[in-house]
Amino acid sequence: MSRRRRIYEGKAKILYEGPEPGTLIQHFKDDATAFNAKKHSVIDGKGVLNNRISEHIFTNLNDMGIPTHFIRRLNMREQLIREVEIIPLEVVVRNVAAGSLAKRLGLEEGTQLPRSIIEFYYKNDELNDPLVTEEHITAFGWATPQELDDIMALAVRVNDFLAGLFLGVGIRLVDFKIECGRLWENDMMRVVVADEISPDSCRLWDLKTNEKMDKDRFRRDLGGLLEAYQEVAQRLGILPEQD
Ligand code: C5P
User: Fold this and answer.
1) Atom of ligand 1 nearest to the CA of 201
2) pLDDT tens digits along 117-157
3) How many C-beta atoms surround the C-beta of residue 121 within 10 A?
4) Which of 10, 33, 37, 200 sits at 20 to 30 Å (Cα–Cα) from 100?
């Protein structure tokens, strides 16, 4: 139970009112969903690991001057974030063919792409998050051309950082998804990285064995999801705290 006002509840997270205006508390649940929530399960401890892994990544992004909504982790399941206006796009960056790209274009999973590819999906559960182009995004006003430029620049920088971070611990960054938001400060608006970056939103393969260390373990009924996320945390040197 919580005394705080709940602002929004998603499939894997809850947003509560924050302690100060312009802040929110992002709470990580243990729920695992796939295929637009057609598949659902609760995996004890997943939220704790994602909170910790996402904290590690967002702290590094902030330190590198890549703007994010993240302020600090509060406890095992919660982090303090800045309130942003979420841009209704899922921004996917791909380095290796997998998932929906492999299926759509008939590529073999694991094929290195000639260069990194950015894709946009319109965030809409009823429509199953359809793939959209820059033309759709600007024509329907989901983001301005300038915002779209900013989003792509952020996506490229996050990809460069994440690819290096994971390569350093023997993990191949196949693809990932970010969400971006508009943050107002002193009447100035800038686009920042929001939501989370965790094994729920990335494809991570062991460099040597190609073993999957991400949510595909759940999507494809491979089992061992918690152990895989724990291994990611361990390799990043951030074992979760015990209480
Ligand atoms: O399924 P697909 O191949 O399009 O997913 C690309 C990447 O985006 C994967 O890393 C997946 O985990 C992530 N993704 C996500 N949330 C979604 C859809 C995809 O985090 N709703």
Assistant:
1) 20
2) 999 999 999 999 999 999 999 999 999 999 999 999 999 99
3) 18
4) 10
Atom of ligand 1 nearest to the CA of 99: 3
Q: Chain centroid to CA 223: how far?
A: 21
Cα 195 to chain centroid distance, Å, stands at 6
Q: Where are the alpha helices (DSSP H) in the chain?
A: 46-63, 99-105, 134-139, 145-167, 216-219, 225-235
101 C-beta closer than 6 A to ligand 1: yes
For the chain, helix, strand, coil in percent to 5 are 30, 35, 35
**Ligand 1 atom nearest to 98, measured from its CA:** 3
Asked whether 10 lines ligand 1 (CB < 6 A), one says no
Closest CA to 198 of 40, 79, 38: 79
* pTM for the model: 0.97
Measured CA to CA, the distance from residue 116 to residue 110 in angstroms comes to 14
Question: Measured in angstroms, how far is the CA atom of residue 197 from the centroid of ligand 1?
Answer: 11
Could you tell me the sign of the dihedral formed by the alpha carbons of 61, 63, 66, 67, in that order?
positive
The candidate with the shortest Cα–Cα distance to 176, out of 121, 130, 240, 224, is 121
ipTM over 0.85: yes
